[in-house]
Amino acid sequence: MNPSRRNLLKVGAMAGALSSLLPDMSEAAGRVAESVGAVPAQVQDPNLPAEATNGPWRKLRAVKEKKVFDFHTHSWETPVQGKNYTEEKHMHDIDQWKDYTPELIASMDKHGVAQAALSPAFVPFETYIESSYKNYPDRFIKMTSMLTNRTKGRMGEVTVEEATDILKDQIQQGCRGIGEGGFFWGRNGRYTVKDLKPFVDVIIEHDMPVLVHSGWAVTGIASNYGHGYSAAWRWAERFGELMSEYPDMKFVLGHTGGAMATPDAWEAIRLAYSFDNAYCEVSKSPPEIIEAAVGGIGAERVMFGSDWNRPQPKTYGPLNEHYVFQQWYTLNNVARANLTEDQRDQVLYKTARTLLKLNPA
Amino acid sequence: MKTSRRQFLQIGTTLEAELGVSVAKPPIPRSTSLGATRQSTISRPDLLKLKSMPPPPEAADGPWRNLTAVKEKKVIDFHTHTYETPIQGTNYKEEAHMHDIDQWSDFTEGLIDSMNRHGVAFSALTPAFVPYETVAETSFKTQPQRFIRMTSALTRQTKGAAEVSPAEMARLYREQFAAGARGIGETNFMLGVKGQYSVKDLKPIIDLVLERDAPVLLHTGWAVAGQRPNQHYKAAWRWAEDMGSLFSEYPEVKFVLGHTGGVIETPDAWQAIRLACSFDNTYCEVSKSPARIITAAVGAVGAERVLFGSDWNRVEPQTYGPLDQGYIFQQWYTLNHVAEADITEAQRNQILYKTARTLLRLPPA
Hints:
Number of strands of chain B: 10
Radius of gyration of chain B: 19 Å
Strand content of chain A: 5-15%
Oligomer: heterodimer
Low-confidence stretches of chain B: 1-39
CATH topology of chain A: TIM Barrel
CATH topology of chain B: TIM Barrel
Mean pLDDT of chain A: 88
Number of helices of chain B: 14
Largest sheet of chain B: 5 strands, parallel
Order of helices and strands of chain B: HHHEEHEHEHHEHEHEHEHEHEHH
Helix content of chain B: 25-40%
Mean pLDDT of chain B: 87
Strand order of the largest sheet of chain B: 6-7-8-9-10
Number of helices of chain A: 16
């Protein structure tokens, strides 16, 4: 199977998590403190824009205190990127992946990120267990994935029952949330939203947040090149159907629609305003969208994420969006949003810690 | 029939008309997309406290006080209601429960008090949640000089009915017009309780509307109503296309876009502006609309096709839905946006009362 990013974003996945296995926040923060120091003035990297090293993110209280929680990260991607969508699709089709975990940890240390919820992508859940999760147990919160050794290459055959078994197994292994790519949608309209009830019942039983990709995505377009195109309203209605059917499931809108405020991000805001069970994860979100999310549903339902997946900027897609996956990018947008510092603290770590049932920082 | 707010907005309704009243600052630039208080520091648990907290400064001393129409007490509010739940929920689930209880309080006195404070002479009052007869025996009866009657398809006869056909709806409306109604009250269409009728099926209602030359107030856009299980979430383009098919089929009918898509500027409000730009027979009622949308409406279709409304329905701010939208149903809220819109004072006068008077065939103020 070539697990394209779009496939990853469409399939469900799961993995489980028990608090006894959970890293203690203060310990994690201590490790970050050692590595970050006191956020010293940085020498600007000539290959990066000025705001990467000296942007407003450096003044965020949560960054200075090294308490930031990144709800949306990945650590495996292609070794080489393409320069356009066609090339990038080819890179994904090769199905060779590189472990960028050390680089993610370096970015977290640099940006005051104590912990990150890590969603397996492109490689099976077991690969993440044996690499990222194993090597940095106190920095990563395990998130579930439907892509496993047993489902790779046969995702189209996975039933609700099998998906539910995978979910239960990953919960047993310590997952605390449904990762991006961890929710089981069923393939090709094989299942209705109602059919997913056994799967959703397990999620609700464990009170786990569900991170779902929402909105336009540069990588999704690349991976899906040649497979059609959908306007923004389609994903919004699909999510609305699911959120309406399962009002007790905590539904985290990954990216809150993404970097494009109109139409995608506003569709996400409209959804968030419509459902009590909606949360906004703001990776790539423009400041106006972060403000609208906090203003409408409260900072208690908004959280920071980056969608970090490789150290380099993207080399394909919109020219002005190559840096949107970097942690400093969304941190800057949180800093630029018209919020109080208390609201920023809530967004930057408190909401995620509450959702994942972690001890307060 | 248990009439949730959403159900109310989905079925048809109607009602009628008469008179009233008061009050000034430079426009506050507001370029936000939602037009609401931008830096909200309200949290969900604080929502209930909103009711006992003093309203924000712009409620008492906002730019609405400098509007000529307010000072001359000539404003007409084209969109009001007087019955709502006695108690609100703090989230959609709780609010849905409050509606399901099917108990309603009469807030007529509160509306009259608000009208007096904001220079509102008359309000077009659309019965909601309770049968038309209840509003006729209370609000319309006790304040005949202040309310213009609008129709409603929810009557003692239809309450609980599984369906109300267009022919039956037309018959009810005819009775209500005979009793003084001057317009079709807020409805999200008239396609039946279950939405099984086509636009063409509505001809009996349309014939009556044309005969009476009555405006039709339609709910448009996203509303603070929440979703219920088994209710499909619909993106903005769906209501826009539904409305467009109605406007296209009946070009002689004066359709009023209630809320002009509402407080969410993108996508809903711009869908409404697009619709208004597409049909000669549309009017924009701007309750909750951001100032930028009011400016766009006036710029596109002229102040003669734009009119003030509030969607007032209870004294207290809303305690559910988006945290920064608790006050959007208050009359001062939309009056402030009219004051902040980039339009002339003459255009404001047109919006604040002249357009409504013309639509409702009332003598000039």
